[in-house]
Amino acid sequence: MAPVTKRDYYEVLGIGRDASEDDIKKAFRKVARQYHPDLQTGTQDKKKAEEKFKEAGEAYEVLSSAEHRKRYDMFGHSGGPQGFGGPEGFSGGAGGGFGDIFGDIFEDFFGGGRGGRTRPEQGNDLQYNLELTFEEAVYGKEAKLKIPRWEVCEPCKGTGAKSSTSVKPCTGCGGTGQIRLQQGFFTINRTCGQCQGAGQTIADPCTTCRGQRRVYKERNLSVTIPAGIETGMRLRLSHEGEHGMNGGPPGDLYVAVAVKAHPVFTRKGNDILVDLPVHFVIATLGGKVEVPTLKGKTSVKIPEGTQHDRTLRLKGIGAPSLKGNHTGDQLVRVKIQIPTKLSTRQRDLLEAFSKDSDLAGETEGEGIFDKVKNMFD
């Protein structure tokens, strides 16, 4: 009988030869879900699906092992002189058994879990939303925070039991935390429903946490807010999140910053922007005016003939940079004020100025009417 020709493992999973470990796992999930025998209806469909399912499992087992994948890429299905550690180049489990591979890959598929509550579990990350004034964001501050979080119960040290004698092995799983189940043609492990994977039951719970192993507490923290921080930025405080379970590490705390709007100033990167009302006479003739800054008032020179929305720059009185020693500037945007009420003398003077300047004809350069006329010539 002629030997059965096996399909290329990369082709079986529908991936390229440069696929990453994560790509391989995702591809196997997709193929395995498609051909799992328990999801097929007809007998013939089940048989074909079972073959493809086994084929996908074999491909995943070899390609998910870095060493086996290297041999496969070099020697193909034979695995070379060393093979893959089993008959016909297939070991039956790169990670410790055929069932182990599927037990890991289908935890979410069958609703199961491996290890349950006996595994060390990292605590959840937390986020604290901190609102700052404009000045606090520019110059920084020391913020006092109160963080509510789950912490390991001190009296029972996170066991959930009043005493060590209160802890008994679970009768449902024999203390393993897992129950072996037959799924079609292979076996997987599922979390024990009686002890929720802990492998033990508590006869006399801790009176402080009532067997929950953690308690809800409020922790006081002092956090340095760096000068120059802006809305949308987050500070990360390692291990200040919720406590882990079963000896797992705590999560992290993220402080999300939101800066209140200022009635006068706005931010533009490290620069601070302020609109400065300037009388049209000063804008025309030039002069000095006072301008507000976060450090108090200062004077700024308005050049003769300053136009509306012209921006003047005051060096070095902006916001500090978070990435170095650079400090931004203050940008002063001129907003020319036009009087709405004039005295008789003021009106006479402006009318005389208008006649003297020949504003109607725009003697300086091409007038507006000439410009419009030239558009149609």
Could you please describe the fold and organization of this structure?
By secondary structure, the chain is of the alpha+beta class. The chain has 3 domains: 9-109, Helix Hairpins (Orthogonal Bundle); 126-259, Chaperone, DNAj Protein, Chain A, CATH 2.10.230.10; 265-338, Urease metallochaperone UreE, N-terminal domain (HSP40/DNAj peptide-binding domain, Sandwich), CATH 2.60.260.20. Helix content is 25%, strand content 26%. It is built from 9 helices and 15 strands. It has helices at residues 9-13, 21-35, 43-63, 66-75, 98-105, 134-139, 280-285, 344-357, 368-376; strands at 126-132, 141-152, 167-169, 178-183, 186-191, 200-202, 214-225, 234-237, 253-259, 265-268, 271-279, 287-293, 296-302, 311-314, 330-337. The strands form 6 sheets. The protein has a 4-stranded mixed sheet with strand order 10-11-15-14.
- For the secondary structure, the number of strands is 15
Element-level helix/strand string: HHHHHEHEEEEEEEEEEHEEEEHH
Q: Please tell me the total number of domains.
A: 3
- CATH level-3 fold name of the largest domain: Chaperone, DNAj Protein, Chain A
Q: Report the major sheet.
A: 4 strands, mixed
Mean pLDDT: 83
In the CATH hierarchy, what is the class of the largest domain?
Mainly Beta
Report Rg. Answer: 37 Å
Q: Which structural class is indicated by helix and strand composition?
A: alpha+beta
Total helical segments: 9
Provide the low-confidence segments as ranges.
Answer: 86-101, 110-116
Helix content range of the residues, please? 10-25%
Biggest sheet: strand arrangement = 10-11-15-14
- Strand proportion, as a percent range, falls in 25-35%
* CATH architecture verdict of the largest domain: Ribbon
CATH homologous superfamily of the largest domain, by name?
Heat shock protein DnaJ, cysteine-rich domain
End-to-end Cα distance: 96 Å
Coarse morphology: elongated
